[in-house]
Specification:
heterodimer, A: 112 residues, mainly beta, 5-stranded mixed beta sheet, 9 strands, 0% helix, 46% strand, B: 113 residues, 11 strands
Amino acid sequence: DAKTTQPTSMDCAEGRAANLPCNHSTISGNEYVYWYRQIHSQGPQYIIHGLKNNETNEMASLIITEDRKSSTLILPHATLRDTAVYYCIVRSMQGGSEKLVFGKGTKLTVNP
Amino acid sequence: DVKVTQSSRYLVKRTGEKVFLECVQDMDHENMFWYRQDPGLGLRLIYFSYDVKMKEKGDIPEGYSVSREKKERFSLILESASTNQTSMYLCASLSDRSPGTQYFGPGTRLLVL
């Protein structure tokens, strides 16, 4: 079962920052937080991951609270193409064969 | 860029047919996965492989088999297709050097009549 809790849906205006929250209160010390997204009728796409420090790449920023019980994915300037379901996943770094457990995710709608 | 390709985007088959879904990745990844995705049920793991000729059952292997004869190719086989196997099928690959970072193909939407 998924070990994360996310809002079912969110809306964001085009050009504004989209802040997607995720609760993972039972996260253990060796588990990373991963974010994926799935645009309609496509396969999921990796976005970013982190352990305890904030992370940034060309797609997004990841802010993890100090107690690691929650995190926020930030899309700094959302575009219509960012409309997708966003999945927050916690997973240890042990073993490449360990499956990812996708929950229901947050459906983000970016409005013009 | 990692590329994961799947043989078909859309497929229509009849009940009882044998169905082959092919997946190819071009990044020399050790691990490959087959998922199915259904509304309200999310992604469910069918089978995965961590090396050539190696395979492990996922959560829902019944009615499916897999083949991994070459590192870059992972095939999903429906021995006798049934209507409850109508679904979106997603293949993914992953490197041992980056656990958790799976790269997915575009998916195959299979309709079994």
